[in-house]
Amino acid sequence: MGANYSSTWHEANLSTTPQIKRSQVIAFHSSAKWKLHFDSLKDTNKLVVIDFTATWCGPCKYMEPVINDFAAKYTDVEFVKIDVDELADVAQEYGVQAMPTFVLIKKGEVVDKIVGADKDGLQKKIQKHRAIFI
Questions:
Q1: How is the beta sheet containing 78-83 ordered, strand by strand?
Q2: DSSP designation for 131
Q3: Residues ≥6 apart with Cβ < 8 Å to 65
Q4: What is the pLDDT of residues 77-127, one digit of tens each?
Q5: Active site includes 125?
Q6: Cα 33 vs. chain centroid, distance in angstroms?
Q7: Which of 50, 108, 110, 133 has the fewest C-beta atoms under 10 angstroms from its C-beta?
Q8: Using an 8 Å Cβ cutoff, are 78 and 106 in contact?
Q9: Is 57 a catalytic residue?
Q10: How far apart are CA 9 and CA 13, in angstroms?
Q11: CA 26, CA 38: separation in Å to the nearest integer?
Q12: pLDDT digits (tens, 9 = 90+) for 25-59
């Protein structure tokens, strides 16, 4: 009976752990809220990765779990999800013409960009730009 109780407790704790890790990607549904958030990050050295996506985009759906995994792995990087149909003005501001497009920003400036579902390329650029040079 004690082993069964222990197993249940263990399973309950395992099921809550991934939810905590996946909460790293922030989705914006308002241009005004995005602008406020973006402005708050301009003075930090934190790398921001914007995932420009669309609900109808197959490659975007492929990249969604990849972005969630990166967000759990690179906790010093901010991951943002913006739907191009919802916030077309923000997508236009960054010159997004294909999905998915990943824009990497540091101190308010675009430092890199990846167009397409290039998991390895995105990971290399994240690793390159997240490094803090003193």
A1: 25-28, 78-83, 47-53, 101-106, 109-115
A2: P
A3: none
A4: 999 999 999 999 999 999 999 999 999 999 999 999 999 999 999 999 999
A5: no
A6: 16
A7: 133
A8: no
A9: yes
A10: 6
A11: 12
A12: 999 999 999 999 999 988 888 999 999 999 999 99
> Token match 């009976």: residue?
1
What the block records as the tokens of 7 is 């197993």
The distance in angstroms from the start CA to the end CA of the chain is: 56
Question: What global pTM score does this model have?
Answer: 0.80
Catalytic residue among 47, 48, 50, 60: 60
Structure tokens at 60: 């975007």
Of 57, 87, 96, 114, which one is the catalytic site residue?
57
Q: What residue type is assigned to position 87 of the chain?
A: L
